[in-house]
Amino acid sequence: MKFAVLVFPGSNCDIDCYKAVEDTIGQPVDFVWHTATDLSAYDCILVPGGFSYGDYLRCGAIARFAPVMNEVRKAAEAGKYVLGICNGFQILTEAGLLPGALLRNNNMKFRCHSALLEVVNNKTAFTNQYSAGEVIDIPIAHGEGNYYCDDATLEQLKANNQIVFRYVAGNNPNGSVADIAGVSNERGNVVGMMPHPERAIDQILGSEDGKRMFTSILNAWREQHGAAVNG
Ligand SMILES: NC(=O)CC[C@H](N)C(=O)O
């Protein structure tokens, strides 16, 4: 299984994502520059966190026009796995590949600390190694993580099981609607989340709860391609 980690000017979690793929599942992974025009070689696209284009206008608002985003759209339409983390989530919502938008944190502060999340949907390609309702510890680091969508969209998200992660009750760090920390598209092959699983892959980092996101992806891909999980 082959992974791409996109790199925009200002990305700063690209190396962490690359290392997380190497360290958790040992699959081939390449950095792919934002000007790339072909992602056909990749099975999973990771859109990492950071400050693409200096967060000018709005986080992700400029990155979504990068040439590589046409290819991300094609990959998503082809059913490949696309995971946007933090600034990656912001870019995917700006690109219209995920519903909703990320606003400034309600307290107007950049929040950087560990966060407890509930795994709401464990049926996605990104979460199949967790139990439904499991509480996991994954760090956040953002200034614009306040997930917003209108009431009709929220009803759709609930009805289609598109809420993937929620901050546990009383621990919403940014004012997100319905405590949402991560959502999927309707098909479930595109997920965006504000917390950083790539920063939680080893106890030395304070948590290894993010590791199973990567093993989930490999597991889903192998199931889709008819290979045993450990085969
Ligand atoms: N860690 C990140 O990706 C941060 C995203 C964005 N720059 C923000 O502050 O919200």
Can you walk me through this structure?
InterPro entries: Class_I_gatase-like, PRibForGlyAmidine_synth_PurQ. Part of the FGAM synthase complex composed of 1 PurL, 1 PurQ and 2 PurS subunits. It comes from Paenibacillus abyssi. It catalyses: N(2)-formyl-N(1)-(5-phospho-beta-D-ribosyl)glycinamide + L-glutamine + ATP + H2O = 2-formamido-N(1)-(5-O-phospho-beta-D-ribosyl)acetamidine + L-glutamate + ADP + phosphate + H(+); L-glutamine + H2O = L-glutamate + NH4(+). This protein is of the alpha/beta class and 231 residues long. It has one domain: Class I glutamine amidotransferase (GATase) domain (Rossmann fold), CATH 3.40.50.880. The chain contains five helices and eleven strands. Strands 2-1-3-4-11-10-9-6-7 form a nine-stranded mixed beta sheet, sandwiched between helices. Strands 5-8 form a two-stranded antiparallel ribbon. α1 links the parallel β1 and β2. The model has no long low-confidence stretch (mean pLDDT 97). Bound molecules: glutamine (GLN). Glutamine is lined by residues 49-51, 55, 59, 86-87, 141-145. Glutamine (GLN) binds at residues 49-51, 55, 59, 86-87, 141-145.
Please give a quick description of this structure.
This protein has a single domain, classed as 3-Layer(aba) Sandwich (Rossmann fold). The protein is built from five helices and eleven strands. A nine-stranded mixed β-sheet has the order 2-1-3-4-11-10-9-6-7, with helices on both faces.
